Amino acid sequence: MFERETWESLISSFPYETEEYNFSVWDDRDTGALERYMEETILHFRQIDEKIEAKKRGKSYRDYRSKYEDAAKGVSRDLADLCSQCIAQFSVQCGLKGEEAAIWKSVYAEFLRQICPEAAPPAGVYSMEEALFMMAAVGDARSLNLSWRDAPEENIGLFLAASCAGRHSVAEMFSYEASVKDKIVQGFSGFVPLYMEEVNGYLEYRPGYGDSGSKDAYPPLDPDPVYAVYDYTMGRYFDTGSFETALWEGAVFAHAHLLSRLEANPGLGKLERFQDENNFFAEFDPQKGPDFYFSEEREYRPDSLRQLYHSWEWCAIDAEGRRQRFSEQWK
Q1: Nearest to residue 157, comparing CAs of 254, 39, 238?
Q2: 131 near 83, Cβ under 8 Å?
Q3: Beta bridge partners of 209
Q4: Alpha helical stretches, state H, the chain
Q5: pLDDT tens, position by position, for the chain (331 residues)?
Q6: Contact 109, 102 (CB under 8 A)
Q7: How many other CB atoms are found less than 10 A from the CB of residue 203?
Q8: What is the DSSP string of 58-103?
Q9: Which of 91, 165, 213, 274 is the most buried if burial means most Cβ atoms within 10 Å?
Q10: Sign of the CA dihedral 166, 170, 173, 179?
């Protein structure tokens, strides 16, 4: 504790320079790393705190306590800067107000309460659990699951709706703040066109881009089928309150919509995205029912209905694990 490096290492616990960090590359791996840094930082601070308290009768006690509080405030500011900028920048990109100040105050107060409660201000709008849930949502979106990029538009619409409804469903399970759930729904409204723009940007580099006359062609996405499936699936989710029901009924609708479109325009069937290897609906049979597609144990494709269901399950497991860590380790 006599060394300046001790205090500098505490303040620099989060290895992100927010003024220089490119949040457009923030993904789910970054979120996982951030949560580990947070747990390690809390443990480190508490160890130092115990050492200081052991010297309570010493002459340097007040000096140590002052340095400790300064370090705690500094690292809490760094974390608040990181979370607020990351979430706000993505929210603004999706057409939402960033709420940067509300997120900053919430994260700063919550983290400081863990390592120096006597210096912490009143709690903000969001718990740390909710803030990290939003960070994870941004990371998932930034990861841009492009395994669907070669698929028919109906498949993409179902993927996007399942991503939105799945996150919203988990937020409901854990009774998160209403504005967290609103951000998911409203943010996805702005994210859907961003995703299609990203896919079209990818397709531009494929042979036959813009062509629609051969099997190897990759014309730009038609947004109408994407929105048709997305809107229908989200409507069923809000009508039923059930992710599983919405996913299944959305899949049945998407399958019928796809068949209808191919019947009206048989030439679409020549396109690469409608071939079996890119279109899981080629093997879809609504008569088998949701249990077959949601509960099957055999290997499944990364662009399949089972993958969408599994992603929802994993999101809930991740949130449950975070809640357990907070309830067991956080004061």
Answers
A1: 254
A2: yes
A3: 218
A4: 4-11, 28-54, 61-93, 100-115, 128-143, 153-173, 178-203, 223-240, 243-264, 289-295, 305-329
A5: 556 677 777 777 787 777 777 887 888 888 888 998 898 899 989 989 998 888 887 778 888 899 899 999 999 999 999 999 999 999 998 999 878 999 999 999 999 999 999 999 999 999 999 999 999 999 888 776 677 888 999 999 999 999 999 999 999 999 999 999 999 999 999 999 999 998 988 887 776 555 555 555 678 899 999 999 999 999 999 999 999 999 999 999 999 999 999 999 998 898 888 999 899 999 899 999 999 998 876 667 878 899 999 999 999 999 999 898 877 667 6
A6: no
A7: 19
A8: STTHHHHHHHHHHHHHHHHHHHHHHHHHHHHHHHHHTTS---HHHH
A9: 165
A10: negative
HSE of 138 in the Cβ direction (CA atoms, 13 Å)?
29
CA distances from 252 to 154, 166, 227, 247, 274 (A): 11, 18, 15, 9, 17
Place of tokens 């930082």: 41
For 284, the token pair is 């879809």
How far apart are the two ends of the chain, measured CA to CA in Å?
24
Alpha carbon separation from 295 to 216, 291, 298 (Å, rounded) = 34, 5, 9
Q: Which two tokens stand for residue 145?
A: 């699951």
Q: Which amino acid is at 183?
A: K
Angle CA(82)–CA(84)–CA(86) in degrees, nearest 5?
65
Tokens of 287: 């008569």
Which backbone phi and psi does 90 adopt, to 5 degrees?
-70, -40
Length of the chain: 331
Alpha-carbon distance 107 to 77, whole Å?
9
Q: What is the pTM of this model?
A: 0.89
